[in-house]
Sequence to fold (208 residues):
Amino acid sequence: MFLRRAALRVGRQYGLVARIHRPDSSLIAGRRSDIPARSESSSSSPPPANGSAFAHYTLNVDGALMKDSEGRPFSDILADDVSVIQGIGPNARSAMEALGIRTVEDLATYNYFLISRSIATLAETEKAEPGGRPEASEMNVDRAVDKPYRAKTFSEITDAPVAALYGLSEEKGAMMAETMGVKTVGDLAKLKYCRWAESIFLLSKYEK
Fold:
């Protein structure tokens, strides 16, 4: 003990003992004066007056759906009757029902529409003059079109009567022409009702 006290006296005499550092209480436990106080208000915005979290959105389908369905989620519309789509009157609805199309989802996934659109799309890529197809090519759409059209170009099939599609009778083709204005494969590929329904079907998968 005596030796320790002596050492301390010598240390003080020659400035060898460090001063005891007292920590700044303002730096302890986050009490630093320049740290802003945490706001007590909630980070979430208050709900809009009309109760919808999407009240400030502007996208719409005003020209595609009947008025009372314009604000509904796409996913709710898929099971609706096709008459929910603007422009599909009683005659077109009856024709679609005869084709096995009853709901918006049926229309969106109508096989002959999808085939027609695919043919018309690839027709845009064809080489107009001979030589566009390699001699050894085995590319074909035999199960999509009737036999007389199997060796035709995509462009020729696009311009063919809609009944050229395999399994679609001439009677149904005539009905489509009369009620929906669909006379050719290309007409079916561009039919707005099918395109609208398909878009609703696809985008329903991306709704929140």
